[in-house]
Amino acid sequence: PDATTSTPVAKVSQYACQRRTTTANSNKIFTDAFEVLAESYEFNEMEGQSLAFRRAASVLRSLPSKIQSLRDAESLPFLGKHSIAVIEEILQCGFSMEVQKILSNERFKTLKLFMSVFGVGLKTAEKWYRKGLLSFTRGLFPTGFLHYGDISRAVSKAEAQALGNIIDETVHAITSDALLTLTGGFRRGKDFGHDVDFIVTTPEMGKEEHLLTAVIESLKHQGLILYCDYRASTFDMSRLPNHKFDAMDHFAKCFLILRLDGSRVEGGLCGAEGDGRGWRAVRVDLVSPPMKQYAFTLLGWTGSKQFERDLRRFAQKERHMLLDNHALYDKTKRELLAATTEQDIFAHLGLQYIEPCQRNA
Ligand code: DGT
Ligand code: MG
């Protein structure tokens, strides 16, 4: 090959589902700054600007190497004037003044602290802030405050594995042909997460919800449940998929806080040995779709959030299809497209298959 011809730079797609994004982020210095800006806009209910920074961060995460100059960034999708200016500042002085200001802003810091409580969203955080609260006051906070210290600490891969073993034993003691799958960030190969997500189902149609309630009963019996928020299924086959990402799916699910004993974890618990308890609380989500919807649920719960948003956007904009955690609908043919694997769904969408470990968009 001629050494003078530079290798053509592959065009970066505007859709995360057409990019391969591993956990190795070469542009963390920029993406961390963008995420702060996105969060700040979210706190001010400026959804458009917030999403723009999330998209820009996602594009940078997919790059194989660190951005060295503005020229590297200018031709990328979703990198507008504002994000380019932030990159320029970081390239020059190693940080962004705007981001530093946000990080030391009292309202931002307080809302972030409040929203780190399980179950507390922007509305509640804002309400507390407007009441003049700046930090937690003993006795003031509801169930989300339960085990706050443990829950705000990251969950390790070994801890996720240990929980997987416990739930696997529990599920299979109930039904031998049950199917348990680790999903969420750990399925994408992340080393740490804020919770552990599982899909649990059974080939026996219509028995999946019963299986989930039986699993909860058994975990309770084993003394492992510290908190349980169970949501019954509202799934309705006749409804078309809802491509809006923010709408949660309608399958039976539960948001749990489980007790995890250190003796079950290879290498011990993550950073909690100091208090000598020998156990920690962990957030666990279980979702139970019917087997027919399993592939859609697996794809929907594996994430990342940006990957999911772009799958739905791609389906709608490029293929005239509606995708959610339940189904894929072809608006041209006016029919639902069946799938038993994630590969089937990518194929229906005319997309190259992207491995879970490449979905860290
Ligand atoms: P983590 O737990 O912080 O390590 O990160 P993830 O990716 O496991 O995120 P998590 O646990 O909040 O949610 C698991 C997956 O479920 C996520 O990757 C995509 C999906 N998901 C989360 N929130 C929503 C939502 O509001 N709507 C929809 N459609 N899907 C969601
Ligand atoms: Mg998760």
Fold and architecture overview:
- This protein is of the alpha+beta class and 361 residues long.
- It folds into 4 domains: 88 residues, DNA polymerase beta, N-terminal domain-like (DNA polymerase, domain 1, Orthogonal Bundle), CATH 1.10.150.110; 37 residues, DNA polymerase, domain 1; 141 residues, Beta Polymerase, domain 2 (2-Layer Sandwich), CATH 3.30.460.10; 60 residues, Beta Polymerase, domain 3, CATH 3.30.210.
- It contains 14 helices and 10 strands.
- Helix 1 packs antiparallel against helix 2 and helix 9 crosses helix 11.
- It starts with 27 loop residues before the first helix and ends in a 13-residue tail after the last helix.
- The structure holds 2'-deoxyguanosine-5'-triphosphate and magnesium ion (MG).
- The site of magnesium ion has 5 residues, from helix 10.
